[in-house]
Amino acid sequence: MPLLAKEECMRLTVVLPGFAEHVAAVREESGAWAAGGVGVDVVAATVPGEMSASRYGLAVAGPALLAEVVRAARSGSDGVLIDCAAEPVVHAAREVVDVPVVGGLLPALHVAMNLGPRVGVLTTLPSAASVFRQLLAQEGVSGRCRVVMVPSPGGESGFEGGALVRALCAGAEQAVASGEADVLVLSCTGISGAARAVQDYLAGRGPFVPVVDLTGAALMLLESMVRLGVRPSRTAYAPAVAAPGGL
User: Fold this and answer.
1) How much is the average pLDDT of 49-61?
2) In the chain, where does DSSP find H-type helix?
3) Is 51 exposed, middle or buried (0-12, 13-18, 19+ CB in 10 A)?
4) Does the CA dihedral 204-208-209-211 come out positive or negative?
5) Do 82 and 71 form a contact (C-beta atoms < 8 A)?
6) Which of 48, 77, 119, 204 has the fewest CB neighbours in a 10 Å radius?
7) How many CB atoms lie within 10 A of CB 141?
8) Are the C-beta atoms of residues 238 and 95 closer than 8 Å to each other?
9) Mean pLDDT of all residues in the chain?
10) 130, 122, 146: which is closest to 194 by C-alpha?
11) Integer CA distances (angstroms), 108 to 156, 164, 166, 216, in order
């Protein structure tokens, strides 16, 4: 019997690493994934400068992200998604709150590994590719998951309109044809609807290949954790001495 009955209200929080202008769009997307009785709050952490897909950018954003995670938990949120595929400060956040915390990539990877043996992580950013390779190795999944570079003259910022989705489709098709991947995930939570577009594209050109949506996988995992009544292990994540940001 679930510890949280389905009819009971659940509240989840999505924390963006900056990008306050995207709050409304992320709220709409997250609400579409949430089950009945699950409310989703979306907040943007105030990070110094513009968030970049680099180790430096992730480190600079860390304190603001941690402060928002603590604020969400103390305001009654049942679980928190740090909405970035690079998974910044996820492990640190688990030391300071007693609710489940997930990042933007690993939930999708764990879904993907149950759908096929070889998982490709599509990215257009060379700087991010290095970050993702390190993350995959640290999490012990690099034997089955690999980064797949999608050629681009200017990374994601070099695309306009549907050009990014078209490039991802072409990269996905090449990864499948070359035997690099049986399942795919994207490397950015901010490309709403792209996973389904790439999956439909591949389905029209060969055997079905699943493409897992990052936001959907993360929110559904959070919901499952809350219903199961679990939270971070205190043998793995000993409580921090003090919460960040003076909260």
Assistant:
1) 82
2) 23-33, 55-74, 90-93, 106-112, 126-138, 163-177, 194-203, 214-228
3) buried
4) positive
5) no
6) 204
7) 17
8) yes
9) 89
10) 122
11) 20, 20, 21, 8
The dihedral sign for the CA sequence 101, 56, 180, 209: positive
How is residue 241 written in tokens?
């001495």
C-alpha–C-alpha distance, residues 244 and 247, integer Å: 6
Identify the bridge partners of residue 121 per DSSP, sorted by sequence position: 147, 185
Going by C-beta distance under 8 Å and a sequence separation of 6 or more, which residues neighbour residue 32?
none
Indicate if the alpha-carbon torsion angle 82, 86, 88, 90 is positive or negative: positive
Tokens representing residue 22 in the block:
């995207």
Alpha-carbon distance of 187 to 115, in angstroms, equals 18
Where does the pLDDT of residue 77 fall: very low under 50, low under 70, confident under 90, or very high at 90 and above? very high
**Tens digits of per-residue pLDDT, 6-23?**
455 899 999 999 889 989
Backbone angles phi, psi at 158, to 5 degrees: -85, 0
Which candidate, 147, 142, 149, places its Cα nearest to that of 120? 147
**Helix/strand/coil for 36:** coil
* CB contact at 8 A, 54 and 131: yes
